[in-house]
Amino acid sequence: MVGYAFMGAAHSQGWRTAGHVFDLPMRPVLAAVCGRDRSAVEAAAAKHGWAAAETDWRRLIERDDVQVVDVCTPGDSHAEIAIAALEAGKHVLCEKPLANSVAEAEAMVRAAEAARTRGQLAMVGFNYRRVPAVSYARKLIEAGRLGALRHVRVTYLQDWLADPEAPLTWRLDRERAGSGALGDLGAHIVDLAQFLAGEPIAGVSALSETFVRERPVLSGARAGLSGAAGSAYGPVTVDDAAVFTGRLASGALASFEATRMAAGRKNALRLEINGERGSLAFDLERLNELSFHDHSEPAATAGFRRILVTEPEHPYLEAWWPPGHGLGYEHTFVHQARDLVLAVAAGADPAPSFADGLQVQRVLAAVEESAAKNAVYTPVPPPDAPRA
Amino acid sequence: MVGYAFMGAAHSQGWRTAGHVFDLPMRPVLAAVCGRDRSAVEAAAAKHGWAAAETDWRRLIERDDVQVVDVCTPGDSHAEIAIAALEAGKHVLCEKPLANSVAEAEAMVRAAEAARTRGQLAMVGFNYRRVPAVSYARKLIEAGRLGALRHVRVTYLQDWLADPEAPLTWRLDRERAGSGALGDLGAHIVDLAQFLAGEPIAGVSALSETFVRERPVLSGARAGLSGAAGSAYGPVTVDDAAVFTGRLASGALASFEATRMAAGRKNALRLEINGERGSLAFDLERLNELSFHDHSEPAATAGFRRILVTEPEHPYLEAWWPPGHGLGYEHTFVHQARDLVLAVAAGADPAPSFADGLQVQRVLAAVEESAAKNAVYTPVPPPDAPRA
Amino acid sequence: MVGYAFMGAAHSQGWRTAGHVFDLPMRPVLAAVCGRDRSAVEAAAAKHGWAAAETDWRRLIERDDVQVVDVCTPGDSHAEIAIAALEAGKHVLCEKPLANSVAEAEAMVRAAEAARTRGQLAMVGFNYRRVPAVSYARKLIEAGRLGALRHVRVTYLQDWLADPEAPLTWRLDRERAGSGALGDLGAHIVDLAQFLAGEPIAGVSALSETFVRERPVLSGARAGLSGAAGSAYGPVTVDDAAVFTGRLASGALASFEATRMAAGRKNALRLEINGERGSLAFDLERLNELSFHDHSEPAATAGFRRILVTEPEHPYLEAWWPPGHGLGYEHTFVHQARDLVLAVAAGADPAPSFADGLQVQRVLAAVEESAAKNAVYTPVPPPDAPRA
Amino acid sequence: MVGYAFMGAAHSQGWRTAGHVFDLPMRPVLAAVCGRDRSAVEAAAAKHGWAAAETDWRRLIERDDVQVVDVCTPGDSHAEIAIAALEAGKHVLCEKPLANSVAEAEAMVRAAEAARTRGQLAMVGFNYRRVPAVSYARKLIEAGRLGALRHVRVTYLQDWLADPEAPLTWRLDRERAGSGALGDLGAHIVDLAQFLAGEPIAGVSALSETFVRERPVLSGARAGLSGAAGSAYGPVTVDDAAVFTGRLASGALASFEATRMAAGRKNALRLEINGERGSLAFDLERLNELSFHDHSEPAATAGFRRILVTEPEHPYLEAWWPPGHGLGYEHTFVHQARDLVLAVAAGADPAPSFADGLQVQRVLAAVEESAAKNAVYTPVPPPDAPRA
């Protein structure tokens, strides 16, 4: 694993746990973790249960005891590390967003395709697909329980930037993070919309905004930030929020909102999908629940059902606890680890693929283009569009 | 009152009840109701408690026992009736949307201004401003409890057209209704956004869609519909749904959705407003509740409060029942009647004014223009923009 | 109508409105209202729309223009007025609880039975049966959708006495009110349990408590209170809260709680019923909603449905507004007026009958007896038990 | 660890994870797990990460590499194993309920007291105290945010026995399980009531019921059940449900319900506590949320707040994920492991103690006694009552 901050901790928990909960044909071994600061990475290795620590990711991917490289760094290094790891013969799991640009993402897809011919797998970490309620939502849609889709609406609301004095971090720096709420939160909701609908977004119209343009620079964090040279306040070079609408390939209307300025909303990834035959709703703040409306039910007894997605019949749940004993955020990483192990054992393609990650990147690029051009409707190249 | 269908019944309940609940300086008398079909209008008069029935609205507005004309007809006749009533010296309450076009709305504002010099009042029926929770939300925003606004998101979701075999009615006919979900539902949410924020929408970017383009013609309803000449199916000439984003004058981002195709959502006018210091949320399906997050509260005890807006301190509530004994949809019309009576007694301007109705119309026109031009961001003329 | 305070206002709204909303064979006329203070009752008559005012209920029940006497006084006068009205040949609607004692209630049932032979009707005002969601819950249970009942749990939580400085009123005086939370709130939940289950409560075990034993005496209210002679504080002679368990005739377990000390709960009449085949839940603070779990649904898609009880298929709703346009507290009184008018027109027995009211009284008496005897399980005489 | 079924799996997850998430002075090592069937226990050891397997718990507690014995067996063996482990010089964590009888629990407390003089610790596994929302609720009550307590109501509703054909297991056998819903679910809610209120239950009045008295015998499970000799159906010898009321030492009224027959409720441990100054509510099915009503807030802005208990200021949360990224059921076991490790390292008494477990047992015994004696109010010996 490369990187050991928030995402690294979450991935570690996934790798450590998957083999103890699921019956897997291979059990993951936490071979080595990599970070630039030796004492910090060694402390992280000890804490998170990795057998060894490296300070150069190039050394990590050369190790013989490493079969899978898990990339948990900021977006600006995804492409370089992931491509090198694939070229070094490793399977790769790369955190989302796949890259900071379409060009990088395309290069990563090419590398993944080449590696695939050698039997290697590549997967992008859109972990929310693996919330059981979300997985099950996809199953219901796949089974036709919603009929023709009419509406997809997804918001991802957080509030850690609502306070104008919240400090600058690498996440507010365009060079490191690529974009702001859009790449961080928007990537998730774009992926979920396409995953759940089972079809790509065809075009978008977008507005974005940076409400607070300067924020206090934390002395310790200063080095890692571009454009923050010694002053008390530094520029925010990414968006605080983006709102966009779009059309799915089938013609359904979609709306999206990603923001870090929604006071009181901590992790409100909320989605609702309406179809001719039914509707689904989900809120990540209540991740064990799925709301389902069956429009074929007689009107007098119809209504959104609060399904506790904790039954053995639900995805992933057979291995966990009895009904009603809910899971949490980190379980998505356990499921991700499990699914990648199963794919490796079976030699099967895991999902979401790097191509799925590229498609998200294309949508985000179209969003940025539309936002820059007075919100004009901007088509998104389809999945089979030629790559540069 | 002109018109006696759904809106006429609701307004009647408001006029009949206001004087028995609130202590008013003048008590409304239900003098006469007007409709084209004599036996139907006489039945309506008897049922809803009107003393007389007329079949020609021109006769109604000539009656000496009429001081207020309440226009509850479809949008295509609002301008003609309201202007004539104002010219005849009556106060006018006109259902929303104010008109089917900006030009009509401008003419109505001109008529209202002229009438105002003669002491007459004109009010447009955006009744949801008078849900106590909505009125109270405005008070909290006005008092600065949200600080600088960042986000306004409002959806109005219904599902009575989710079934593709739901029949054609006048509401699906552009000539009668002006537009579809946009004018019917969108007008409400545009008004609420501007009312609550206390500022106009500066521009919009929009997509709209008619998912079901032909619907069965009910034989009885056929006559009233343009373009439905004897065939079993007739064309739907309005939008089923519209999604749009925008900016408020202050720079806050806004998103809107109006649809009649959201299976399972019956009357889901949902709004959330996020500011630097707090947030508010409301759902018309739970109209006695307001959610309020105070961002100045310590994080450990902060959270959205479910305020039951049924305390005597809340707008309109002193006259109603004890705390927790909720009100319903129709109470908005009782409050509307009360407020207009108070305005008449005081000679004060009621709100929302015809100018407020015009401003909504301008937003809706910009939405339609944007939707027709690839969603390009389309500015809305400000309230003080010159009128044609 | 006798009495014109809170209940009088609510009943007036019911009588005034029923004929304008429902198609009734007879339209109620608000003939006369009665109260002891002439100027106050005349003001009430004017405000609430009654044609005449009386200061002696004996005069009221002699009036030829009165066919129905609606008793809205405190419980200590119910028996005397209702029996006299029945003897005077009137139909009677009596507010709940039917009486302050079983003996009074028995006398009222006898009077009602005698009057029935003369074609007169008697009904007790358990208005919450007429919340559409509650009516519909009964229909689902009657149709067997819950199967054999296992559990009934009902709480009625208010908080207007949470503050120890809340003043004494007649409701805290045993002579006037009979009991405290038990008679006021407990009567409702006992009636609802028996109504919904369709069977009587067989026995109970109870604890009750008066947490605040002295409260400030309001000078204006002093005269009407026993035991509050001039002092600044007077004794509370009723219960603040009662909790009790019980068994229904079929063996289902039941639990009940009535309190005025539940800070933050304004009108939380919450009920849940679990049966072998399904469950229902309801909260009066969200009275347009009913939660229904169908246990025959596959586990993966099962869950409590939030039914918006606003469809034309639901009880009373055909006459009201479109789906999702909710009703409020006072509509229960409109429905009560409608149902009594229909019963009178048809010469049919209305429900709940005085016998139903007596049965509630028997349960409340058993609760008090159990509370006085160390909570020992105390049988309730069945509906067909001999009366004194 | 002794036992490796549901509880064993959950405890293993706790022991495996605690040291990787929290900074602990000692890191737990999973030395050995014990079960009677060698191949099964070896499989469990491999799966759950235990270094060794034993088939005799007496051998386990003799091992030198074992410092803590975690007892996860059915209740009938708790006393024997825990006492022996304490006598063997080990720290002991014992699953709830502490024992199947007061006498056993008393013996365990004596053993714990004796061991304490030798520096050993004993803790009982009421894991729900360690849901962060519950821990935080205790802090709010301790800080006086609720004032004098008036009401405690707690239900624990499950539905896995709603189906009369659900099979017999050891949990339905009095000899193994001690009691039914009462000991399994009731123990939790009794402990939580006493923990949160910070005071003991003084007395109870109870009803209990076995609705389904015979259930199908699974052939594989037959051996472990008393009274199920070869027949297709065997007797249920424990309660399906119990409802009880009580008084806390301070005089607050309490009500409780434990059932496995509440169709649609999967793990609905719901509690609400009302005090003079505020109220709290919690539902285990939404375990990341706590509802708090501050009664000192002005009425117009007061209401139950939905606190997402995921802030770094909340108990245990500093070590986990960012705000809004919720935890699940198993985290209670991680927290339990952490707290016991910290207690061992500090030589401090962990809570809940065996004495706390005994006090719960006394309440459960009083419940059973009351249920057997017509629900008569049955005092519970106070914590300082002499032990047999």
TrEMBL record, chains A, B, C, D:
It comes from the Bacteria. The keyword Glycosyltransferase does not apply. Residues 136-280 form the GFO/IDH/MocA-like oxidoreductase domain. Keywords: Oxidoreductase. The keyword Oxidoreductase applies. Residues 1-116 form the Gfo/Idh/MocA-like oxidoreductase N-terminal domain. It holds the Pfam family GFO_IDH_MocA_C3. GO terms for molecular function: nucleotide binding; oxidoreductase activity. InterPro entries: Gfo/Idh/MocA-like_OxRdtase_N, Gfo/Idh/MocA_oxidrdct_glycsds, GFO_IDH_MocA-like_dom, NAD(P)-bd_dom_sf. This is Gfo/Idh/MocA family oxidoreductase. It comes from Streptomyces paludis.
